[in-house]
């Protein structure tokens, strides 16, 4: 990402070195009162460092019984680390964990489960080749010996009825949606008797309808006196579902307050410590219809290995200087579309044209060299090499170019200088470039990918759900970067499920449904109702169909 506007983006100073704003000051006092709330879990003075860098710095956190408690903070603020301490994945360097007032050592995740604490991580840990029922019973002390598939499935069906989370017990995990996989993860935890459920950014991969299903299940869980800790960057959802919030900044807890006394704006101020975010020029002003077409699909059809059609005769043009939004419920062909547009996937039928010329053998590296950047939807699996360092990942797309390479000569010194610049521009301040990228927080991984790809996108940037996992400052910075690119004549393809984001940032919006373009509208003529209808495959109220531009 480009550097944020002055005074924008993340707060680099530690809370200790800042003068708290009035709102913050009041809430820091509120934090002192926190210990007086009846606590199911109390974390006191939790400190945890990695290679000398403090991820948690004397954190206090109190969870009451029967509450949904949101844990908020910038990328890298230390939220996941704190929860990994509570679930026994990490041992704290200092501090105490109290469960119902009694000090407890949580040496491992199995001790956490035995204590009634279960966590569902951002990246699911299921075995794709196993069925839902097998995954739920894997490693569970109550799994019967020599149980047949039908016994495991019947036991799973009973859990489904008990907790109101619908999954198909006999389905293979590889074949189910992200929302269903999440329900399997939650059922795994609830089956083991969790009274405290920790969810790390659970709605990042869910459709709006799935979010409501999840929230209904969480409310039912709370109604039985259980508690939920919800790590989230989505303040609208936090206001909707949470009873209480704790805000972390730079490894410390800076505020704890009931949601009823907060607003989205006040929470945003607490998170980033300042009010100004990078502003993007207004979109939807219309791009010149004569602007050159940089990237084009003609009649593109893609099938998967089982011959199921993922994209069905797609015609699409990306023009210079436009932000082309792709709306649609995830799973309607978005992944295949972004991969075809970036040379990662060759169509079974149809043509991909760059600058009007058909590309005979589309290839990801060739497309990158032509200036087509790609922020894919699954950063850890497809955008990053998890075991390689930050520096290696940062320059991954520029190895063959000057200054990193000169002819066939690779220049490690130049690669390091460039990596440092990319890491700094991604605002991963004070990061060790030699650290494996898997040790970065989820949001910081996304920042690195976004910065690397916007750098190489001199023609087109294809961004699939690019703001997933980003904190509010980083979201604003990313949107500003997209508009800066489009102002320079780059075509930006923004794939998103969030209608608001598309209406605000796109010039045109194409709706993808069942692998087809259900319609393309100028953003100025689109509204949530019309887009929603197209996204669900209904065009009856618009008999003329969508307007093709
Ligand atoms: N295993 C690890 N090794 C080294 N550093 C780590 C490790 N786990 C976390 N960190 C560092 O600790 C800091 C806090 O990370 P953490 O994942 O807790 O942040 P977060 O608030 O959950 O961020 P996000 O919103 O991006 O998920 C980061 O600087 C991260 O790089």
From TrEMBL:
Which SMART domains does the UniProt record give? Answer: AAA
InterPro entries found in the cross-reference section: AAA+_ATPase, ABC_carbohydrate_import_ATPase, ABC_transporter-like_ATP-bd, ABC_transporter-like_CS, P-loop_NTPase
GO MF term list = ATP binding; ATP hydrolysis activity
Alphabetized UniProt keyword annotations: ATP-binding, Nucleotide-binding
Q: Where is this region: Disordered?
A: 1-22
Cite the ABC transporter domain residue spans from the record: 41-275, 295-539
Q: Which PANTHER family match?
A: CARBOHYDRATE TRANSPORT ATP-BINDING PROTEIN MG119-RELATED, GUANOSINE IMPORT ATP-BINDING PROTEIN NUPO
Q: What is this protein called?
A: ABC transporter ATP-binding protein
Q: From which lineage does this chain's organism come?
A: Bacteria, Pseudomonadati, Pseudomonadota, Alphaproteobacteria, Acetobacterales
């Amino acid at each position: 990402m480009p550097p944020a506007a002055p005074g924008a983006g993340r707060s680099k100073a530690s809370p200790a070195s800042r003068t708290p704003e009035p709102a913050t000051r009041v809430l820091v006092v509120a934090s002192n009162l926190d210990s007086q709330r009846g606590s199911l879990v109390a974390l006191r003075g939790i400190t945890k460092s990695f290679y000398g860098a403090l991820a948690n710095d004397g954190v206090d956190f109190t969870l009451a019984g029967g509450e949904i408690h949101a844990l908020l903070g910038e990328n890298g603020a230390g939220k996941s680390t704190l929860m990994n301490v509570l679930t026994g994945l990490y041992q704290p360097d200092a501090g105490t964990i109290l469960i119902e007032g009694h000090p407890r050592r949580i040496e491992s995740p199995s001790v956490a489960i035995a204590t009634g604490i279960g966590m569902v991580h951002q990246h699911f840990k299921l075995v794709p080749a196993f069925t839902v029922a097998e995954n739920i019973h894997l490693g569970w002390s109550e799994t019967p010996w020599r149980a047949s598939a039908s016994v495991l499935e019947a036991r799973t069906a009973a859990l489904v009825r008990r907790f109101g989370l619908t999954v198909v017990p006999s389905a293979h995990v590889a074949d189910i949606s992200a929302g269903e996989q999440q329900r399997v993860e939650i059922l795994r935890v609830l089956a083991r008797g969790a009274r405290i459920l920790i969810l790390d950014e659970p709605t990042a991969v869910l459709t709006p309808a799935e979010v409501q299903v999840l929230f209904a299940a969480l409310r039912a869980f709370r109604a039985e006196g259980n508690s939920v800790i919800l790590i989230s960057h989505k303040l609208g959802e936090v206001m909707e579902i949470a009873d209480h919030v704790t805000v972390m900044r730079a490894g410390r807890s800076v505020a704890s307050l009931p949601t009823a006394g907060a607003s989205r704006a006040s929470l945003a101020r607490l998170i980033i410590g300042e009010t100004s975010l990078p502003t993007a020029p207004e979109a939807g002003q219309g791009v010149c219809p004569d602007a050159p077409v940089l990237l084009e699909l003609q009649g593109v059809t893609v099938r998967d290995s089982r011959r199921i059609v993922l994209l069905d005769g797609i015609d699409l043009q990306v023009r210079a200087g436009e932000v082309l939004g792709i709306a649609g419920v995830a799973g309607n062909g978005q992944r295949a579309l972004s991969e075809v547009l970036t040379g990662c996937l060759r169509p079974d039928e149809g043509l991909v044209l760059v600058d009007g010329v058909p590309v005979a053998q589309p290839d990801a590296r060739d497309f990158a060299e032509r200036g087509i950047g790609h922020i894919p939807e699954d950063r850890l699996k497809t955008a990053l090499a998890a075991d390689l360092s930050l520096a290696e990942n940062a320059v991954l797309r520029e190895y063959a170019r000057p200054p990193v390479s000169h002819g066939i000569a690779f220049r490690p010194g130049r690669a390091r200088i460039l990596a440092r610049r990319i890491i700094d521009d991604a605002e991963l301040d004070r990061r060790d470039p030699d650290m494996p990228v898997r040790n970065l927080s989820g949001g910081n991984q996304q920042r690195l990918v976004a910065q690397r790809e916007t750098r190489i996108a001199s023609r087109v940037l294809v961004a699939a759900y690019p703001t997933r996992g980003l904190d509010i400052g980083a979201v604003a910075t990313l949107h500003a970067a997209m508009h800066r690119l489009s102002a320079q004549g780059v075509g930006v393809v923004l794939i998103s499920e969030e209608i608001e984001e598309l209406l605000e940032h796109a010039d045109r919006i194409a709706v993808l449904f069942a692998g087809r373009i259900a319609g393309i509208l100028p953003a100025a003529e689109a509204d949530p109702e019309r887009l929603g209808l197209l996204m669900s495959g209904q065009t009856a109220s618009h008999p003329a169909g969508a307007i093709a531009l």
